[in-house]
Amino acid sequence: MSVILEVDNLQKSYEGRKVVKGISFNVARGEIFGILGPNGAGKTTTLEMIETLRPIDGGHARINGVDVAKDAQKIRYMIGVQTQSTAFMDKVKLTELLEQQAAAYGERVNAIELLADVDLSEKADSYVENLSGGQKQRFSIAAALVHQPKVFFLDEPTTGLDPQARHRLWQLIRKVRDQGITVILTTHYMEEAEVLCDRVAIMDEGKIVAMDTPADLVQKLLKKGFKKARKVEQANLEDVFLNLTGKELGR
Amino acid sequence: MKIFWVVVLVLVIARIGWRISRLVRKNQPKAQPARPKSNKDLSQHQRNLFTIWVFAKISVKRYFRDRLALFFTVAFPLIFLLVFGSLSKGSGVTFHVGLINQGGSAFSQKFINEINTNKSFNVDKTVTSLATAKDKMSKSEIDATIVLPSDFGAVKDNLPAGQAQIYFDENNVQAAQTISSVVQGQLDGVNTQLIKVKPPFSVKNVSTNTGGLSKLDYTVSGLLGFSIIGLGIFGPVNYFPEMKKQGVLRRLHITPLRVWQFFVSSVISNAIIGLFSIGIMIGVAAALFHFKMVGNYFELATFITLGILCIFGIGLAIGGWARNERQAAPLANVIVFPMMFLSGTFFPRYAMPEWLQHVSAYLPLTPVIDGIRMIATEGKHLTQIGPQLGWVAIWTIIIYAIAFRVFRWE
Question: Searching chain B, which residue's CA lies closest to the CA of residue A75?
Answer without folding.
Answer: B256
